[in-house]
């Protein structure tokens, strides 16, 4: 069953999704070579709690091995669910920062990939294309389309047109009262396949795209997903509500990109 959210519920989800945007904007301001990924997580958790929310990810998952942090910070060949650590960012790294904000019974969920200093053209192109694929996918989040129209759009643009590897083991999802709800939103698939979209459905659309092989594996910690060939991977995510003619973003990249432009330690090549 895919939930249809009413206006009040969508307002709460939007407010929470924009708190994730604000958190990622604070991250963007801090990024520079030498900073540890753990310091970003510490700042984010404080920021989230100071704003009356809870970090959606902390404690998420099975009782045996709940996710231990507020952010997922995935550097270079890490696809998603990287643990913040004492690793110091260095010039040439790319990092996906994923964050969830929970308040008043609903979640927002959204992610962005940043480049630290100078990053090669090949990786900048991967970032640009992955972000573009998300924007194209959001246009497909319209009434009476199907989930497969979103999935096909990401796969077609990133893989068929650009030749990148599309991760299959992890998918986007419905988001609302729970972080992960129906439906699953894969980044590969066929036009016209899957469940029919209705106005008011809220989806987290999140392409995870690899420079090389689509193959990935999970490390010993049970969370960290890495590319099998060690090549870089990029991840962008928006919380989106299905509307009549196209999806409406509840989260925003604008403030994050503005902070990126203002931060001289970040490579803005993918913003052009
Ligand atoms: Co998500």
Which second-level CATH architecture applies? Alpha-Beta Complex
Describe the oligomeric state of these chains in a short phrase: single chain
Q: Indicate the CATH topology.
A: Creatine Amidinohydrolase
Please work out how many helical segments DSSP would assign. 5
What structural category arises from helix and sheet content? alpha+beta
In percent, how helical is the residue content?
Answer: 25-40%
CATH superfamily: Creatinase/methionine aminopeptidase superfamily
Which SSEs are present, and which pair or pack?
Elements: H1 7-30, H2 37-50, E1 54-55, E2 71-75, E3 78-80, E4 94-103, E5 106-115, H3 121-139, H4 147-161, E6 165-166, E7 172-174, E8 181-185, E9 202-205, E10 208-210, E11 216-218, E12 225-227, E13 233-235, E14 238-241, E15 248-249, H5 254-262
Antiparallel strand pairs: 1-4, 2-4, 3-12, 4-5, 6-10, 7-8, 7-9, 9-14, 10-13, 11-12, 14-15
Helix pairs in contact: 1-2, 1-5, 3-4
Cobalt (II) ion binds at residues 109, 173, 204, 206, 237.
Q: How would you characterize the overall build of this protein?
A:
By secondary structure, the chain is α+β, with helices and mostly antiparallel strands. It has one domain (7-271): Creatine Amidinohydrolase, CATH 3.90.230.10. The protein is 30% helix and 23% strand. It is built from five helices and 15 strands. It has a five-stranded antiparallel sheet with strand order 8-7-9-14-15, sandwiched between helices. Strands 1, 2, 4 and 5 form a four-stranded antiparallel sheet that branches. Strands 3-12-11 form a three-stranded antiparallel sheet, with no helix packed on it. A hairpin with a 6-residue loop joins strand 7 and strand 8. The mean pLDDT is 98. The site of cobalt (II) ion has 5 residues, from loops.
């Amino acid at each position: 069953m895919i939930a249809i959210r009413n206006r009040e519920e969508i307002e709460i989800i939007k407010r929470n999704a924009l708190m994730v945007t604000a958190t990622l904007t604070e991250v963007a301001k801090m990024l520079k070579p030498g900073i540890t990924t753990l310091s970003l997580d510490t700042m984010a958790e404080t920021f989230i709690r100071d704003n009356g929310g809870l970090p959606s990810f902390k404690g998420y998952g099975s009782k045996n091995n709940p996710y231990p942090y507020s952010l997922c910070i995935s550097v270079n060949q890490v696809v998603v669910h990287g643990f913040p650590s004492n690793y110091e960012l260095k010039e040439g790294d790319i990092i996906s920062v994923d964050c969830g904000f929970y308040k008043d019974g609903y979640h927002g969920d959204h992610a962005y990939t940043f480049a630290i200093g100078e990053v090669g053209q090949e990786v900048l192109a991967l970032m640009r294309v992955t972000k573009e694929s998300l924007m194209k996918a959001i246009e497909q989040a319209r009434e009476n389309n199907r989930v497969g129209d979103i999935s096909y759009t990401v796969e077609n643009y990133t893989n068929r047109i650009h030749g990148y590897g599309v991760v299959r083991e992890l998918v986007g999802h419905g988001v609302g009262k729970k972080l992960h709800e129906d439906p699953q939103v894969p980044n590969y698939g066929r036009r016209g396949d899957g469940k029919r979209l209705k106005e008011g459905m809220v989806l987290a659309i999140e392409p995870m795209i690899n420079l090389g092989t689509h193959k990935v594996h999970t490390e010993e910690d049970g969370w960290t997903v890495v590319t099998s060939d060690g090549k870089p991977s990029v991840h962008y995510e928006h919380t989106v509500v299905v509307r009549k003619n196209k999806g409406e973003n509840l989260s925003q990249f604008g403030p994050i990109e503005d902070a990126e432009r203002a931060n001289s330690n970040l490579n803005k090549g993918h913003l052009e």
